Amino acid sequence: MAHIxxxxxxxxxxxxxxxAADRLRAAGHQVTTPDxxxxxxxxxxxxxxxxxxxxxxxxxxxxxxxxxAELPAAAVLAGFxxxxxxxxxxxxxxxxxxxxxxxxxTGGAPESVRPGxxxxxxxxxxxxxxxxxxxxxxxxxxxxxxxxxxVHRYPGPGHLYTDPxxxxxxxxxxxxxxxxxxxxxxxx
Length: 188
Hints:
18% strand; single chain; Rossmann fold; 6 helices; 188 residues; alpha/beta; six-stranded parallel sheet
């Protein structure tokens, strides 16, 4: 099974991230969930963005790098929303990553993609942070660079629909996301 670096959203290291890690561990994966803030998680997205500004994007990326350094080169890079972006940023430094798993946000730049890199993206439809035209452009660029991209959109739920403690939560979309995620990771 895979080693997975699972990075939290702008809210911080919430119970939903721990629950997701436990779900992945129950499927046989080894999961690392670093606290990219070193502070208690936020209760609102506005508080989350304030935490991100307080800690700083550079510090967040450095903490993610430190956690990744402890893992095998072929670890799966994964993240929720902001964490998806951070996972994508790490891809440039971890070309042997087995896969890129993006939940609630795009990540990764075409210049960081190795041919055949498996990438799976899960998004609400619509998603206020991920407009369809931008997702389409990202998908074209990643595919043109050689990634094998699968995008799954879920009509109706809010942005962080897999988090049961948020108003965005959609149990059916979350269940389907986890089924597809586990199938994706089973091959890596």
